[in-house]
Structure formats: C-alpha cells, structure tokens
C-alpha cells in the first residue's frame, strides 16, 4: 500500500502544495487564477513533453529555450514579410525539427555527449537570435486569425494553449505507451547496448526523439510569440531548466528508461503552481530563482533515492 502511494508522489506533492498555497492566499483557487496557471504552464508543458522523450533515452537537451526564441523570431519575420500564416507555421515547425535532428545526429551518429551538443546548440542559437533580431523585439503587424488565436484565443472561455497542451499530453502518452517508437525509447534508456544488439535502429530513434523535442520547442515559440504578438530576442531564457525540472518532478529518471508523460504533466503543474504562488505572495523574482533551484535539487535527490 505504501509503495503504491509512493509511486504517485508527483500527484501527492501537487495536492499538498496546492492546499498550502490556497491556505496562504485564497485567491489561488479562483477560476480566473487557475486558468492563468494553466495558460502559463502550457508553454513549459509543451517543451517538457519533448524533454521527457529525450531524458527517457538517457539524454538531455539544453537548447530548447534557444530553439523557441529563434523559431519565434522566424515566425514573426515570415508574417511581417506577408507570407501565408499556415505556411509560416509549417516552416517554423520544420525548422525546429531540423534543429532537433541536428542535435540527434551529433549525439547518435557522431557519439558526442548530449550535454555538450545541446549546450553548443543553445549558445549558437541564442547568439543567432540576437543577430537575426538585431537585439530588438519583432512586433507582428498582422498575423491573421490563426496566429492570433493559437496563443491568445479562447474557446468556451478557456485559453486555446490549454487545449493544445492537453492534446499533446494525450498524444505523447499514446506515443510512449502504445507504439513501437515508445517501447524503443524506453528500451534505449534502460539498456542501449542490449537494444542495439536486439536489432533496433538506436540512432534513428534517437534522431527522431531529439527532432520531436526541437519541433515542440518551435511550437512553444509560436504560441509565445502569438500571445505577446511579438518575438523577443531573449525569449525562452531558462526554459530548459523549467522543462527539466518538470520532467524530474514528474518521476522520470535522469538515468533514462523510467518515467511517463502523465508524470511530466504533474511536474509542469507543480512548477506552474510554484511560480504563481510566489507571485501571489509578492516574493521577489530574485528569491523565486533561488527557490526554484532548491526545488530542482530536491527533485534530483528524490530521483537518486528512487534509483537506489
């Protein structure tokens, strides 16, 4: 019984945390604030789904925030140049996919460490974004109805990014639990050498894992750009840490092979509730960074204890 309860520790942690916050500030449980938490969480959640795939293989992706920023800037530029919004959307997602494939190629084919590869990509794309935008925000003149709604629209009084987040969590769960690709992803994280010897194309799976992570980061960039109606050159800064924290808090092992997208959803909500609670309690942004770091450390310690 205790073992079953412990296996649901992300859900238990979220419930306890939400109760504490609601006691400290009754405004937390209002309808408007809950929708606000979910909308703010949606971008990190979308990135965290891709990060879950990567971490399940035993890898890491530090470039997600930079991919978000660069792809968001590209989307804004394409719209301002008068291109069709649907075409601009497809090109932006394809660009994120290419960046992810590039990371996957270096990790799988060139046998480089994921930490180093994605750190290089992160640094390069962050600089490329500043060059592309000339260090200034790119304000969208007229993005059309599709672009306006994807980040700032509502359906039945619920922000559309929340629907996108839920749909992607369902798709991610199905991908991992009910497809060969999902089983191969778990197998690589559990024992990559044995997976390779069993005849599975490990390199191909890894490239697609990083590719999907890059594409989801690009989608998050489009949503953020739509919500602000401009592309910020510093957008996505630190988002990789939030995504990693959400994945680890959700019970996915940094060693790979263990974890679920449903856990990541809970982890992302914990991060979102934490940020919202600190804002409601008027905690300085400087202290918020410190508290978030402590939460990540606790998550890693719990992960290590679970592995033992």
UniProtKB/TrEMBL annotation:
<feature type="transmembrane region" description="Helical">
    <location>
        <begin position="12"/>
        <end position="34"/>
    </location>
</feature>
<keyword id="KW-0813">Transport</keyword>
<feature type="transmembrane region" description="Helical">
    <location>
        <begin position="207"/>
        <end position="229"/>
    </location>
</feature>
<keyword id="KW-1133">Transmembrane helix</keyword>
<keyword id="KW-1003">Cell membrane</keyword>
<feature type="transmembrane region" description="Helical">
    <location>
        <begin position="46"/>
        <end position="79"/>
    </location>
</feature>
<feature type="transmembrane region" description="Helical">
    <location>
        <begin position="112"/>
        <end position="133"/>
    </location>
</feature>
<keyword id="KW-0812">Transmembrane</keyword>
<feature type="transmembrane region" description="Helical">
    <location>
        <begin position="154"/>
        <end position="176"/>
    </location>
</feature>
<feature type="transmembrane region" description="Helical">
    <location>
        <begin position="86"/>
        <end position="106"/>
    </location>
</feature>
<dbReference type="InterPro" id="IPR001851">
    <property type="entry name" value="ABC_transp_permease"/>
</dbReference>
<dbReference type="Pfam" id="PF02653">
    <property type="entry name" value="BPD_transp_2"/>
</dbReference>
<protein>
    <submittedName>
        <fullName>Ribose ABC transporter permease</fullName>
    </submittedName>
</protein>
<keyword id="KW-0997">Cell inner membrane</keyword>
<keyword id="KW-0472">Membrane</keyword>
<feature type="transmembrane region" description="Helical">
    <location>
        <begin position="241"/>
        <end position="274"/>
    </location>
</feature>
